[in-house]
Each structure stands twice: as structure tokens, then as C-alpha cells.
Amino acid sequence: MAARVSSSVTRRVCRAASIIGVASGIGAPDRRCGEGPPRLVADGLVERLAARGADVALRAMLEPRYTERYRALTELAGRIAREVADVLGAGRFPVVLGGDHSCAIGTWSGAASALAAKGPLGLVWIDAHMDSHTRATSGSGMPHGMPLAALLGHGEARAIAAQSASIAVEGHLDPRYVSLVGVRSHEPEEAELLARLGVRVFGQDEVDARGVALVLADAVAIARAAAGGYGISVDLDAVDPGEAPGVGTPVAGGLGGSELVAALGACCRDAGYAALEIVEYNPHRDVDNRTARLVEDMIVAALA
Q: How far apart are CA 95 and CA 303, in angstroms?
């Protein structure tokens, strides 16, 4: 990727951030998304962020250490959680780059652990999918479709969340402070679980009707009510595949990339905004680096 300074989001950056790469696609059917984080770094992401004013450093590039899926995910989630907690403990802003979305179990278990003394963690989950399956409801059995259910304390993968945190919350999120944005592909069992728990779902139809900015503001308001702070998890397949083709599981329609970047930028002055996660970048499916550029712009918007 040629060096460049994007004009779409160029502003003074004030948050000091540490990037944690998760080079793992072990939870997805197309494991090439595990190549996304190291590719972004190798193509100069950190240097371009610095050129745009960011105080940012690469902290780690984590990879699975085992071949058996659930053993690998459990061990990897623990390392992600520790890295996130350490970054927050140092007063910096964690930016986790996945990999498939199962890495979210570690990201948000670590954030919940680090912020537990303040109170529960809120979370905005931006995704075309609900990621709220259990093994009993998943047709594919792929863990990248289960992380939100696990973080909410449901399904077999919840054990990964429990082992990723060293605090009483066991990495679980309080559904009162969780919402989803941009959903347009899900199974009835996932919707039933989230409805039963009282999780607010802003489907793509609502986003189309009201706009990304207003919907994300409402979602952030739900997460901000959590005393511990909140995070935002972005699966790149939430964006229209015409703008973000480099994803593992594209779904027609979706959020506008520039609108999402602008909406993320609106959160940047919020003291409660504690961490950002961007996942499922598949460089083999990208076209003209559209998706890679979007990742960069999202990070700048979050830090500005």
C-alpha cells in the first residue's frame, strides 16, 4: 500500500493509543482475516497514523498458540484480555485489530476487568450480524458467531470469557448497557436471546430511516450509562460491501463508510469512551485498499 495521508479524516489527534493486533482467523470459516492485522501494519498503518498526528504505537501482534480451536481461543482470549487491561492501566486507549470477531471475548473481558472498580462496562456492537449464537443454535458452529452471547454469559463460549478475566464479573457484560447497530443478517434464536435479555438492537432498516449519526448517538447513550465506561466494537461487514469489500462475511446493504467515520468521531471527546475494536479485515478480498483506508480513518476518528 502506498504511503498516503487521507483527506477524509484529518484532524488533531489527542488520545494516546496502543494497537493490539490479533492475527487470528481460527474462529471463522475463512481464516484469511487473520492475515489482516499484520498486513495493515506491514503496509505502514502505524506510520500513516503518526503522520496524521496520532500518538500511537504497536504494542503487540498476537497469534494462536494451539491448533485445537477452543483451546486456542481460550488461551488467545486470555492474552488479549491482559494486553487490553495493561493498556488501560497505563492510561492509554486500546485499539484492538482483529482477526475474526471471536477476539472480542478477550478484548471486552480485559476492558471489563480493568474498569471494574468504576462499575460495569458498556458496549456498542456495530455489525451486520448479531454474533449471539451458542453451539446449540449455530448451524456452522463457528465461534466468530458467538462472542456477544459469550460476553453476555450465554453459550459454551462463555467459559472463554470467564477464563479471560480475573474479576467477579467474569468478563460478562450487563445487557442494560449493550446495543447493536447495523444488523441485517441473523437467525431467530439470536434475536430471541437478545430480546429476552433486553439488549437494544438498531437494525439496518432503522439506520436507513434515521441515519448513522442519530442511531449511533442513541447506542452510545445506552453504553455511556454504564459507570465503568464503554467501548465500541466494529465488524467491518457492518459497512456496505461496495465501500468495504475486504471482509470475511459480506452482506448486501449496510452503513456508509464516511457516515460511520464521522459518527465515530463524534465520540472522541467523550471521557467515558475507553476502547475501540475493529475486526474481520480480509486483505485477500479488498479492492483498491478501500477497506484498509476505512480502518485507518476509523482509528483517526476515534482518537481525534
A: 10
